[in-house]
């Protein structure tokens, strides 16, 4: 059915609206959405797509969950926003209390911000202020892992992989950080001597200028969807303690159960000094992030020269987002989320295994609610995206990777349909 208004709107979109990582002179096709419910996205032409992306890791409970809808309605009827400078409110207090309870031991202080990238900015500023307050003014750089990805704002970009991290064109304008080789030890295995040597060598060489080490625990996301050994994180924790560096865990993508533990740090049985959360925090309803740290770090910063932590977003601790986030976390913890994630892992492993020996496929790997098909060569998004839509699934590949992280509520039947669609598209390459 032809809709002139929609046709005009799409023409405007193509000419005037910049989509993520897209060109304004040769934009990719976009698909107009009219509604979303459960794991299905409905397009303007009436077609429904099974969502394999959970809207970039965030919509863990599916779209339009009645309890999250009700939490939003209840809060918006009271007030949707007040400034957090000099004021506070129950949604922020209740959510902060819940986060302190469920995150690794020792993370007692909660700083709210608007997005995952900003939570990383906050973490880096915390590390720098902490070292300054201790009198270590030369410790003003961050150690990061190659193949890592931490966001699109400037400090976050500086700790992304300088080659594969999507931000290499900004290298001259970004702070110069210290990069470790990407860990090579697979998840579930004892640390390779080469990985340990690289860790120890980097700390020994750079500890006098390193304020912190930042890493994505267990899963390197946009840098390659790589799963690596928990042993690596344990040794990183030990070396941070040995050399007076803070450990920042970026769990924006991995937090809230995605890897099979509530937080990926728990695979290594360690607690970071600073923890970044976002994405699934609100169940995908609104943008909200949190940076948690220890009492020691917070007190050291607060007793430093500035006398306070120098950050304060306008929409910090937005009450509407906090109310939804509290309900989302409560909903997750009320269910048997761990068994459910194991179900997803088993189904993804079973359905995608058929591609392991395909000549165009380099690797197939699954962990928790994450399934990855790595191709031998980069895939052309413009050509591949319509094929997935034809299959009735929403999958957004990048580089060599065709990957999924579906909503936790997806049924076995829908997950099978999602995976079978991926197999058909990859097989057709």
From TrEMBL:
Transmembrane segments: none annotated. The modification N6-(pyridoxal phosphate)lysine is found at residue 279. The record marks 21 as: Participates in the substrate recognition with KAPA and in a stacking interaction with the adenine ring of SAM. PROSITE patterns: AA_TRANSFER_CLASS_3. Its cofactor is pyridoxal 5'-phosphate. Its main location: cytoplasm. SUPFAM superfamilies: PLP-dependent transferases. Signal peptide: none annotated. It is found in: Cytoplasm. GO terms for cellular component: cytoplasm. Pathway: Cofactor biosynthesis; biotin biosynthesis; 7,8-diaminononanoate from 8-amino-7-oxononanoate (SAM route): step 1/1. Coiled coil: none annotated. It catalyses: (8S)-8-amino-7-oxononanoate + S-adenosyl-L-methionine = S-adenosyl-4-methylsulfanyl-2-oxobutanoate + (7R,8S)-7,8-diammoniononanoate. Pyridoxal 5'-phosphate binds at residues 116-117, 250, 313-314. Its EC number is 2.6.1.62. Substrate binds at residues 56, 149, 279, 312, 396. The keyword Iron-sulfur does not apply. Keywords: Aminotransferase, Biotin biosynthesis, Cytoplasm, Pyridoxal phosphate, S-adenosyl-L-methionine, Transferase. GO terms for molecular function: adenosylmethionine-8-amino-7-oxononanoate transaminase activity; pyridoxal phosphate binding. Belongs to the class-III pyridoxal-phosphate-dependent aminotransferase family. BioA subfamily. HAMAP family: BioA (MF_00834). Homodimer. NCBIfam families: bioA, PRK05964.1, PRK07986.1. Catalyzes the transfer of the alpha-amino group from S-adenosyl-L-methionine (SAM) to 7-keto-8-aminopelargonic acid (KAPA) to form 7,8-diaminopelargonic acid (DAPA). It is the only aminotransferase known to utilize SAM as an amino donor. This is Adenosylmethionine-8-amino-7-oxononanoate aminotransferase. It comes from Nitrincola nitratireducens. The gene is bioA_1.
